Structures are given as C-alpha cells and as structure tokens.
Amino acid sequence: MNTGLKNHLLIAMPSMTDPNFDGTVTYLCRHDENGAMGIIINRPLKMRLLDIFTQLEFDSVDSKKAEQIVLSGGPVQQEMGFVLHQSNESFEKTLNPSSGGIKITVSQDILNSMAQGKGPKSSIVALGYAGWQAGQLEAELAANAWLSVPADPTILFHTPTENRRDAAAALLGVDIHQLSNYVGHA
Question: Helix or strand or coil: residue 132?
C-alpha cells in the first residue's frame, strides 16, 4: 500500500463525479494503512473569520484576520474547524506536522490568537474534512480520479483560492482544462 501521500495535494480529475470533490484540490494531512484525511483548499464558504470570532465571542478582533475567508474543508464533520498553518508557535491540539512544516490545529486557542492579531502569519481555516477508509484513496487513484503532487506552501497560503487547482496542476506541467473528462486505460 502506498502511504507516501501525506503532505501532497490531490487534484480532482475532470472525470470526478462526486459533487463533494468535483473541481477540488485537497491537502492530505494524513495517509497511512488506516486511510487518509485531507482538507479541501479551494472551496470558499460564504463566511469570514469574523463570523467565527463573533460566534466564539472573542473580546478583541483583528480587522485584517477577520476578513479572511473560511473554506469548506470536506463533507465530514462540517461543524468542526481546522486551521492549516506554518508556525513555530505551540497550540493545544496541533496534529502531526508534515515534513514540510505544515501543521493542522483543531483547538480554539489558535483562533483566539488569530483574533488578537497574533498566531500564524499565513493560514487556511476550514470547516469539515475529507476522509478515506483504508484502501479507498488508493482505489480512487488507480481509477484515475486524482492527480497528486507534493504540496507547495505557496499554493496553500499565497495563491488565491480560485487559482489553487490550476497552480497545483501546473506543478505537474498539466493544464487541467486541457484534460478530458473521459476515463480510459491503455
């Protein structure tokens, strides 16, 4: 079983028929013999961090951070928040950082820090995640549902959401718009 896709981007092929993933690019936080977990990084919600800061009743709110968009990270546990970031700071519940220094934090302390104008300089805040059972992602890769490429922090944190899929595909030298939505095998 291939377990080397942690810290990779999954780019949905044009043939992707699942509406949860059509047109998406997903950052893989975990991939091992038990399955995989990722955060979709190009599906903005009609929500800003200000909405979350207000709901959590934070006393002070940094106006710049408050305008950051919130993403739909996937169809699983959409009420749960995830913060992807690169930071040397420690937070309560930061899951295993990747070799690329990208971390995922699920505790409220990072949001409080961000509301105060502190916290990581660059971040993605998403509600929900994408999950695959053991062997499921491998089967989807074998069926040509996804392209994969090592994650690039520039795409994650400095590329506008609407350009992330094209930029990820470009890392492979692929123009995603030139690919057919028909699947076949040679």
Answer: strand
Chain-centre distance of CA 120, in angstroms?
16
Q: Is 178 helix (H, G, I), strand (E, B) or coil?
A: helix
Alpha helices in the chain (DSSP H): 49-55, 63-66, 108-115, 136-142, 153-158, 164-170
Q: At 175, is the pLDDT very low, low, confident or very high (cuts 50, 70, 90)?
A: confident
CA gyration radius, the chain? 17
pLDDT in tens, 112-152: 999 999 989 899 999 999 999 999 999 999 988 999 999 99
One-letter amino acid of 177: H
The residue to which tokens 């074998």 are assigned: 142
Nearest to 102 by CA among 153, 41, 68, 171: 153
Poorest-confidence range of 40-44, 96-100, 115-119, 151-155? 96-100
pTM of the complete model: 0.90
Cβ-contact 139, 56 below 8 angstroms = no
Query: Is the Cβ–Cβ distance between 114 and 65 less than 8 Å?
Result: yes
Alpha-carbon distance 185 to 60, whole Å?
Answer: 56
More confident position, 67 or 2: 67
Angstrom distance (rounded) from CA 111 to CA 105: 9
Q: Could you tell me the domains of the chain?
A: 8-178 (3.40.1740.10)
